[in-house]
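Below is a filled-in request sheet from our internal design queue. Each sheet records the structural input a requester submitted and the sequence that came back. We keep these sheets so that new team members can see what a complete request looks like end to end.

REQUESTER: design group, bay 2
PRIORITY: normal
MODE: inverse folding
CHAIN LENGTH: 230
BACKBONE (tokenized):
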């Protein structure tokens, strides 16, 4: 009873609003939940957008390390962008249940076309992790492990901070510029097949740098798995 009264007091002081319609009362109202049907992403190369497959195309392969990517929705979807803002920048983890529901429903069509024996995430830098209090990519990796019955491992560490690529103009990003940002954790044996998880894939700069660190440490295939793709 005391917990319930405390919750009501907090919600009266800091009301939540639906990330879709803006209605007060919660982050995801029943009406929006029943009609939310985001457009599906077309299959295309994650780097040059050549259509036909979510695998990295033959022209891009010599320049990058990520073998392909599975994504749920376009990052341009305004509902998804607001949900991410609430989650990452305002730290309201109540929205995790909503995003988890989206990913659970989409997981069957997002099965990667490789043998992803291990799941890992693209880690935050320790400074940002302390500030935020949690790593959303690690949460997503745990979901993927549960959906597909796969082991989840921490394989990488981010050794220097970087600016969020989702907030950088596309013409100012470049694949390869983050090389050296990630290192494999000391004493870790990298598996041959890795499902690499993050929240957003935009230019591919961050995820490809992480894939490079994994492949240079022994991985043969690295496939991305994200909520949204730019």
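RETURNED SEQUENCE:
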């Amino acid at each position: 009873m005391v917990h319930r009264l405390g919750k009501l007091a907090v919600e009266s002081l800091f009301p939540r609003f639906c990330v879709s319609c803006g209605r007060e009362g919660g982050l995801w109202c029943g009406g929006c939940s029943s009609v939310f049907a985001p457009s599906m992403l077309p299959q295309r190369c994650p780097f040059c957008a050549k259509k036909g497959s979510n695998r990295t195309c033959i022209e891009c392969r010599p320049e990058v390390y990520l073998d392909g990517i599975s994504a749920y929705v376009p990052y341009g979807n305004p509902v998804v962008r607001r949900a991410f803002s609430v989650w990452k920048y305002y730290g309201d983890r109540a929205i995790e249940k909503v995003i988890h529901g989206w990913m659970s429903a989409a997981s069957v069509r997002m099965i990667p076309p490789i043998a992803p024996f291990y799941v890992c995430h693209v880690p935050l830098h320790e400074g940002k992790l302390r500030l935020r209090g949690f790593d959303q990519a690690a949460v997503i990796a745990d979901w993927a492990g549960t959906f597909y019955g796969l082991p989840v491992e921490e394989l990488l560490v981010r050794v220097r901070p970087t600016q969020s690529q989702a907030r950088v103009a596309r013409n100012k990003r470049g694949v390869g510029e983050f090389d050296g940002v990630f290192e494999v954790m000391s004493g870790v044996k990298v598996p041959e097949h890795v499902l690499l998880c993050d929240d957003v894939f935009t230019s591919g700069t961050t995820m490809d740098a992480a894939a490079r660190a994994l492949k240079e440490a022994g991985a043969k295939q690295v496939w991305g798995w994200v909520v949204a793709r730019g």
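SHEET NOTES:
- Strands lie at 68-74, 118-121, 156-158, 182-184, 193-201, 221-229.
- The longest strand covers residues 193-201.
FILED BY: M.R.
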